[in-house]
Inverse folding.
């Protein structure tokens, strides 16, 4: 079975959102974009090392979805999670410090780019095993359900994870036990370098979820308005029904899979076509057409974001290296008497 | 003192934990209506209800992962994996998630989950139901590995394991469930230390789990031959109680490890390394080990017996070490 990799027409038309929210969504996307552009630059300067998976191109997904969740909700993400962490409320400074491996980082420098964690915002990582977050999310939701806590668990993963047993087992458990999980599948068409139709016998992703009796919906993940609408309704549905929902967000990664990827597996023309409907400039054009944004306002927003990025870099640069004497810290619980951060 | 079976002691430990802490749940294949593959959880469904005694699908990766997630979310789950053989389907969530989360998150997220499983051979269940892979789990930082070999430990170890704050994997040797013994009151609740099960002066037999009883029988046989063997029950396979281990070896000056795992890359290998590192100059003989033979466990009784550590093998190894 073959599927169309061609970019659909760009989203157009008025933005049916209150001006404040409309601009919040733009700011969210721009913060991720500028932060990650800086990360790529810092990677080139060897300030950031290890794996670095950029979200550039996919920003509408995190920017549209995150405002649909409350502070009580749980978030589980993947190794391409800088944007999710940022918009969940983990400060850019602590994210950048983590990328540097500094002790001021949100995982104290022990995690790096792929393992951003933050107990205060219920951000449960940062999981670099494809599909690894899905059973975890089911368990978090089980805990919430049994403790009568009105929180949902939003679990982000790529379409590549849907070939893993973990997807199928988690889907079955969530449906069987009626767990309040919002499964957010970021379908960017490539599992690292393997195109969807080269790895999945069934490329209609929603049908896989429906096979487990899970409510499934699909949305244009390049349209932040559509994403926000879909995520808001999906979250509401999960809260009301107390059951899982599968939301496919059709998106596209503009940059390489990681900094080691020569991108031999896809046409440059295909990438260029998708860039033409990039989530930030198409949305900006719509806001301008509607009179919700002027070029001057956009530049001012961009300037503010650049300032935030610079402060984050300065913070990371000024950060400290954890002393090597602490190497064995946090492998297991510290002995009684040492106070820990409460989750 | 009252007499009780290992199985009943485990069940009592579960009942006690479920009564003491509303966050405790039990989940696993057939733990509910069936009553547990080894009948450990028999009756618990009626007593505590289906919300806390949860039958799971045959989905080890999924339900062990979910147990880990539930622990993160504030519960104290006991996850029963039917046997260590099937736990290989759940190695990913145990090793890649449970064991690492505290560290990867810079200390923010502990995973207070207990994962129990049956282990070991000896009942003609053939190669796919007879593994002893405790050593694999004991290799991994971030988890605690327990091997209760007595009725007392079956009763006592669960509660401190649930309160450890980190993932604890408990191995129950399948040959032990029917064993009956006196349960002392109060019973020990120690998940830190090895135990000296028999004092002796000529050689230390260092063992755990199902092999404890073979080692004790061997010590008894050796006593009739004028050899005094001390028997150390490791109880805790990670982190190892090196102090108890080395103190015994320094006293007896000889060490034989008895381990149902295969010899290559085994827990026994680790124990010998520690003994050599820590007590080399106090040894009167090269330390040795009796492990399973390097063969998948066969079905035929005589072949299975030949593959596993047995009392005569232990006795022979000690005699050789003593030059007798």
């Amino acid at each position: 079975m073959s599927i169309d990799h061609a970019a659909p027409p760009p989203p157009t038309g008025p933005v049916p959102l209150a001006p404040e929210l409309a601009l919040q969504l733009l700011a969210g996307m721009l913060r991720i974009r500028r932060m990650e552009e800086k990360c790529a630059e810092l990677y080139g300067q060897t300030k950031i090392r290890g794996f670095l998976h950029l979200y550039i191109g996919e920003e509408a997904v995190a920017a549209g979805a995150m405002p649909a969740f409350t502070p009580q909700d749980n978030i589980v993400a993947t190794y391409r999670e800088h944007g999710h962490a940022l918009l969940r409320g983990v400060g850019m400074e602590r994210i950048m410090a983590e990328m540097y491996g500094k002790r001021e980082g949100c995982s104290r420098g022990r995690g790096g780019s792929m393992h951003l964690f933050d107990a205060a915002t219920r951000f449960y990582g940062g999981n670099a095993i494809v599909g690894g977050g899905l059973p975890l999310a089911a368990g978090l939701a089980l805990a919430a359900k049994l403790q009568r806590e009105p929180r949902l668990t939003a679990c982000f993963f790529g379409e590549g994870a849907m070939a893993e047993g973990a997807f199928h087992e988690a889907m079955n458990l969530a449906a069987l036990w009626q767990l309040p999980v919002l499964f957010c599948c970021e379908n960017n068409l490539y599992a690292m370098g393997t195109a969807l139709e080269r790895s999945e016998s069934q490329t209609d992703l929603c049908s896989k979820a429906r096979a487990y009796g899970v409510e499934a919906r699909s949305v244009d993940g390049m349209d932040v308005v559509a994403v926000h609408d879909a995520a808001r309704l999906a979250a509401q549905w999960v809260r009301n029904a107390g059951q899982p929902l599968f939301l496919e967000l059709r998106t596209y990664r503009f940059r390489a899979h990681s900094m080691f990827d020569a991108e031999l597996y896809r046409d440059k023309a295909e990438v260029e076509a998708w860039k033409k409907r990039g989530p930030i400039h198409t949305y900006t054009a719509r806001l301008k057409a509607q009179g919700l944004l002027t070029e001057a306002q956009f530049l001012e927003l961009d300037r503010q974001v650049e300032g935030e990025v610079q402060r984050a870099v300065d913070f990371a640069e000024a950060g400290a290296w954890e002393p090597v004497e602490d190497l064995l810290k946090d492998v297991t619980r510290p002995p009684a008497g040492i106070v820990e951060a409460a989750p | 003192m009252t007499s009780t079976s290992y199985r009943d002691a485990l069940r009592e430990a579960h009942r006690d934990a479920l009564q003491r802490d509303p966050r405790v749940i039990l989940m696993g294949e057939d733990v509910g209506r069936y009553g547990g593959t080894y009948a450990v959880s028999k009756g618990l469904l009626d007593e505590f209800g289906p919300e806390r005694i949860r039958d799971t699908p045959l989905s080890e990766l999924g339900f062990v992962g979910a147990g880990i997630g539930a622990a993160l979310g504030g519960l104290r789950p006991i996850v029963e994996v039917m046997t260590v053989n099937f736990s290989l389907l759940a190695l990913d969530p145990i090793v890649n998630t449970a064991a690492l989360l505290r560290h990867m998150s810079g200390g923010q997220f502990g995973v207070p989950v207990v994962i129990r499983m049956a282990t070991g051979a000896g009942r003609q269940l053939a190669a796919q139901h007879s593994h002893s892979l405790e050593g694999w789990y004991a290799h991994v930082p971030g988890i605690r590995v327990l091997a209760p070999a007595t009725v007392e430990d079956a009763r006592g170890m669960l509660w401190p394991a649930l309160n450890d704050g980190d993932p604890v994997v408990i191995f129950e040797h399948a040959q032990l469930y029917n064993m009956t013994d006196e349960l002392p009151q109060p019973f020990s609740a120690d998940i830190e230390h090895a135990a000296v099960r028999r004092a002796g002066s000529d050689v230390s037999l260092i063992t755990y789990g199902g092999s404890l009883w073979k080692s004790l029988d061997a010590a008894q046989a050796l006593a009739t031959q004028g050899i005094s063997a001390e028997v150390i029950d490791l109880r805790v396979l990670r982190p190892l109680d090196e102090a108890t281990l080395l103190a015994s070896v320094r006293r007896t000056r000889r060490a034989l490890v008895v381990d149902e795992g295969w010899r290559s890359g085994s827990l026994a290998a680790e124990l010998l390394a520690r003994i050599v590192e820590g007590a080399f100059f106090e040894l009167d003989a090269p330390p040795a080990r009796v492990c399973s033979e390097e063969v998948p466990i066969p079905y035929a009784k005589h072949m299975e017996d030949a593959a596993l550590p047995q009392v005569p093998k232990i006795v022979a190894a000690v005699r050789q070490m003593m030059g007798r």
Q: What stands out?
A: Chain B has two domains: 2-183, 195-322.
